[in-house]
Structure formats: structure tokens, C-alpha cells
Amino acid sequence: MLYDAASEPAAGTVSALRAAYDEQLAAVLESTDVEAAASETGIAAETLAAIAAGESPELTVREAVAVLALDPERPDADAIVYELRDHLLMGMTTGVLDVDTIASRIAIDLTGQEVQQALEGRTEMTLDHLAAIQHVIETQNDST
């Protein structure tokens, strides 16, 4: 469900966490026809083929969960994104983190307000943003 792509997200880097997301997406695409997946998700077939080939194209969280939802063993895309947001927000609560603290600790140029909007789904969050935000949360929780 993206947040569980890496077994120990705090132990690695942001790049390693993003790579774990990509591996999770590629695993779903292994058993799916790329053209059919493109038709169902609305994502360009070239982008899906790149993911299946082990590349890391820019994707939004919405696009990534649409790919995960292709797996019949997983819930639909809306349920996946709600669970992801819930996991991140619970992690912030556990780690006693606010959006401004997260914004100050990530290498991606986002303000606290932009982090909040991304977490709430009011603006698109890319997988790179997600990896940076999740890494801060998981690292904080791992150290407490």
C-alpha cells in the first residue's frame, strides 16, 4: 500500500524508499498487460512500461495507487490512498511531528502548508514527496 513497500523505511534513504515503491508497482505490473493497465488507470502505456522495466518515472500518489488497485488482492484506489494518509497522519501523531517540522527536514522544497495540503489530498503528492515525508515520519518514530 506504498507505506509498507520497505520493511524498515527509517533504516534506508529517501531514494531507497522511493525505489521500494517502484518495486511494489513493478510487481503488480508483472502480471498485467501494460496496454490494459493503461486503459484502466489512464496512465500512459510508456510510463507503465518504464515502471515494469525497473525505471522510476515521475508519478503522483493517485497514479501509483491506481496501479496497485490493479491487483485483485488489494482494495480499490480510494481505499489505498485513505489508508496511506491515515498511516502517515498516525505516524505524525506518534512521532509528535507537525507539518512545519516535516517541511524543515525534507530536501524537497515544500512549505509546511504544502505538506499539509499533500497529506490531506488537497494537492497532488508525487512519489518523491511521499518518500521524503514518510522517511521523516518513520525516522522520527524509529528514534523515539
Please supply descriptive tags for the structure shown above.
144 residues; mainly alpha; 64% helix; globular
Describe the structure.
The chain has 144 residues and is an all-alpha fold. The chain has one domain. The chain contains eight helices and no strands. Helix 1 packs across helix 3, helix 2 packs across helix 3 and helix 4 crosses helix 5. The longest helix is centred in the middle third of the chain and has 18 residues. The model has no long low-confidence stretch (mean pLDDT 96).
Task: Please provide the count of β strands.
Answer: 0
Structural domain count? 1
- Gross geometry: globular
- Sketch the topology as an H/E string, one letter per element: HHHHHHHH
Kindly, what is the distance between the CA atoms of the first and last residues, rounded to a whole number of angstroms? 24 Å
Q: Give the DSSP E fraction (strand runs of 2 or more residues).
A: under 5%
The Cα radius of gyration reads 15 Å
Low-confidence stretches: none
* Structural class determined from secondary elements: mainly alpha
In percent, how helical is the residue content? 55-70%
- What oligomeric state do the depicted chains represent? single chain
* Largest β-sheet summary: none
Question: Mean pLDDT, rounded to whole units?
Answer: 96
Number of helices: 8
Task: Give the gist of this structure.
By secondary structure, the chain is an all-alpha fold. It has helices at residues 14-30, 34-41, 45-52, 61-68, 77-94, 99-105, 112-120, 127-143.
Compile the SSE list and pairings.
Layout: H1 14-30, H2 34-41, H3 45-52, H4 61-68, H5 77-94, H6 99-105, H7 112-120, H8 127-143
Helix pairs in contact: 1-3, 1-8, 2-3, 4-5, 5-8, 6-7
